[in-house]
Amino acid sequence: MLRSVKGLACRSLKLEHGYGLPPAARGCLSSLSSQDASAPEKPRAVFHTSESDPAKHTERHEGRHYGIPLEEVKAVFPHGLPYRFQQQIQTFNEARVMVRRPALELFAYLRSSNLAQPAVRYVIYGERGTGKTMTLCHVIHYCSRQGWLVLHIPDAHLWVKNCRELLQSSYNKGRLDQPLQASAWLKNFKSSNEHFLREIKTQKKYTWGKRESTEEGRPLGEVVDQGLARVRSASDAVGVVLRELKQQSHRGSFRLLVAVDGVNALWGRTTLRKEDKSPVSPEELTLVYNLRKMMRNDWTGGAVVTTLSQTGSLFKPSSAYLPQELLGKEGFDALDPFVPILVPNYSPREFESCYGYYLERKWLQHEKARTEDGKAELQFLSGSNPRQLDRLAGPL
């Protein structure tokens, strides 16, 4: 384990200096620090920025909150955002995301990527509650604003546990379909990418049954509609959508972001059981089998951005957070080589910003919480961990 930790540290250090990256990506991190920080702005407070376009976020915006219009939240994130953040949106009647360095690093990498080369895999990792999912959401918003087609899996662990309906695949008897999960994903995918689904055409004919088929050259949206109209076909429809996007991304007519929250679920154990009570392996699930193919770097025209999640890792120690620990050997080897992106706890600047935002929104009601001593106590008790600070601030 010590050797693994050292290996990751060395690898991260090399990446930090641009070693081992494609030429176009070298210097991305250094470019962040060279951004012009002289131009002043007039936010409503020092912990806000009026710049709502993620593509324009730079180091001078770091630690500040930017707003996403609520109608845009529904369009870009139809799957929903993290539960605690959804609660915050409802309470404050606004969606504000903090600009943090891990997201800025990813923006720099994506800007300089040569999409004619094999897709680069990025793995966002960090201790529990540091903001990995929100970093991924910031990246999704960035790519959406830049006109990318976003293939978002908001929680891969939901595909490997607590499945209410598990059916034998009609396409491959050795695999199992999850029609409810598949149809729910298709509905949200259609909602956020409908214009792409009208433009992208199928490359072959797909037969769904004795009387139903989708002809070659038809809009990909018809495949999605087939999965929604005939839930039994939903898992196969997801597979067709992923296959078509992967095979056509090299053409340059669209840029493809594959964003998976909790990617370690694809190689972990499941809680699912077959009819004979034997455990189900992840690769036996049609959805997981097809999503694993998207994790390979054998396609061009896009990028793969993932997070590692402890929340759904039922069979891993709660303290585990390193890629080797959560991915295991099989998952690590499947994603290697990848660019690790560490999301740490709040820096002093970020803590001040979050604390100031809570004060402004009157989220901290206790009179002592508004004092310097109260602030210091919140910082100590939370350890500057975003999730812990949110939980501590709620009852105050």
From TrEMBL:
<keyword id="KW-0689">Ribosomal protein</keyword>
<dbReference type="GO" id="GO:0006915">
    <property type="term" value="P:apoptotic process"/>
</dbReference>
<comment type="similarity">
    <text>Belongs to the mitochondrion-specific ribosomal protein mS29 family.</text>
</comment>
<dbReference type="InterPro" id="IPR027417">
    <property type="entry name" value="P-loop_NTPase"/>
</dbReference>
<dbReference type="InterPro" id="IPR008092">
    <property type="entry name" value="Ribosomal_mS29_met"/>
</dbReference>
<dbReference type="GO" id="GO:0005763">
    <property type="term" value="C:mitochondrial small ribosomal subunit"/>
</dbReference>
<protein>
    <recommendedName>
        <fullName>Small ribosomal subunit protein mS29</fullName>
    </recommendedName>
</protein>
<dbReference type="InterPro" id="IPR019368">
    <property type="entry name" value="Ribosomal_mS29"/>
</dbReference>
<keyword id="KW-0809">Transit peptide</keyword>
<dbReference type="GO" id="GO:0003735">
    <property type="term" value="F:structural constituent of ribosome"/>
</dbReference>
<feature type="region of interest" description="Disordered">
    <location>
        <begin position="30"/>
        <end position="62"/>
    </location>
</feature>
<feature type="compositionally biased region" description="Basic and acidic residues">
    <location>
        <begin position="39"/>
        <end position="62"/>
    </location>
</feature>
<dbReference type="Pfam" id="PF10236">
    <property type="entry name" value="DAP3"/>
</dbReference>
<keyword id="KW-0496">Mitochondrion</keyword>
<keyword id="KW-0687">Ribonucleoprotein</keyword>
